[in-house]
């Protein structure tokens, strides 16, 4: 599905973590239960930024949940985009 075909979803403070955990679990090898998340911060463009660390204490991540339901995975220092997945909640 292309960005132009996606309908705008209602990503908000109440459901942003649902989008995030669903996106992580849908990605190859992803397991949201292994990650400790910080509080989501809404950005000027309406997206949500969530910092996180592995519960093992090794590794950090930054996630963005866009208004169209796209979840982006970045390394902790934001130098490498590790992937993205489109999430559509039921």
Element layout with pairings:
Blueprint: H1 16-26, E1 35-37, E2 41-42, E3 48-54, E4 60-65, E5 70-75, E6 81-86
Antiparallel strand pairs: 1-3, 2-3, 3-4, 4-5, 5-6
Task: Give structural attributes.
90 residues; mainly beta; 6-stranded antiparallel β-sheet; 1 helix; disordered N terminus
Folded structure, characterized:
- By secondary structure, the protein is mainly β.
- The protein is 12% helix and 33% strand.
- Strands 1, 2, 3, 4, 5 and 6 form a six-stranded antiparallel β-sheet that branches.
- The longest helix has 11 residues, at 16-26.
- It is globular.
Structure in a nutshell:
The protein is mainly beta and 90 residues long. It contains one helix and six strands.
> What's the total count of β strands?
6
Contiguous uncertain segments of 5+ residues: 1-5
Mind summarizing the main beta sheet?
Answer: 6 strands, antiparallel
Helix- and strand-based class? mainly beta
Distance between the terminal alpha carbons, to the nearest Å? 17 Å
Mean pLDDT: 91
- Rg, rounded, reads 12 Å
């Amino acid at each position: 599905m292309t960005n132009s075909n996606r309908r705008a979803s209602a990503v908000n403070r109440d459901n942003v973590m649902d989008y995030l955990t669903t996106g992580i679990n849908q990605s190859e090898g992803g397991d949201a239960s292994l990650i400790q998340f910080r509080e989501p911060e809404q950005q000027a463009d309406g997206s949500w930024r969530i910092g996180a660390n592995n519960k093992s204490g090794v590794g950090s991540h930054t996630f963005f949940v866009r208004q169209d339901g796209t979840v982006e995975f970045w390394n902790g220092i934001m130098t490498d985009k590790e992937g993205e997945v489109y999430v559509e909640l039921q």
